[in-house]
Amino acid sequence: MIEETISSIIDAEKRADRIAKDAFQKGKKIYMDAETESDRIRQEVILEVRDTLRNEISSAEADANELYDKLLADGKKAADKLTAASAGKIDSAADYVVKAIKERYGSR
After folding, report:
1. Rounded to an integer, what distance in angstroms lies between the CA atom of residue 73 and that of residue 82?
2. Which of 64, 44, 66, 46 lies closest to 54, judged by CA?
3. How many CA atoms does the CB half-sphere of 104 hold within 13 Å?
């Protein structure tokens, strides 16, 4: 009877040890799988952020180029308008300056 009890206790300890080892291995596998999955997700997010950043930069450059071209065109229109408006006035302005100089300093 005592031998059966001792044997039963020993068997129970062995089963408990086996269960503990199995649980430890399962826990270790879960941890390793989680670590692998987190690395995969991190890499995926890094690539996604890089793509998003690259697209945003490209879009911003396109917007900047469009604005630059518009400002350049507006500046050219303003310069052309100023040139056209002052075209007939240059000769009269030059005549005015020459006349003012002659009046002030005379013909020497």
Report:
1. 14
2. 46
3. 6
Tell me: pLDDT of 46 over 80.
yes
What pLDDT is recorded for position 107? 63
Please report which helix (H) or strand (E) contains residue 23, including its range: helix 2-86
What pLDDT, in 10s, does the model give residues 64-84?
A: 999 999 999 999 999 999 888
> Is the pTM here over 0.70, yes or no?
no
Q: Which residue range forms the structural domain that includes residue 33?
A: 2-105
Kindly report each contact of residues 16-24 with a partner whose C-beta sits within 8 Å and lies 24 or more positions away, as own/partner.
Answer: none
Query: How many structural domains are present in the chain?
Result: 1
Hunting for tokens 């996604």 — which residue is that?
Answer: 48
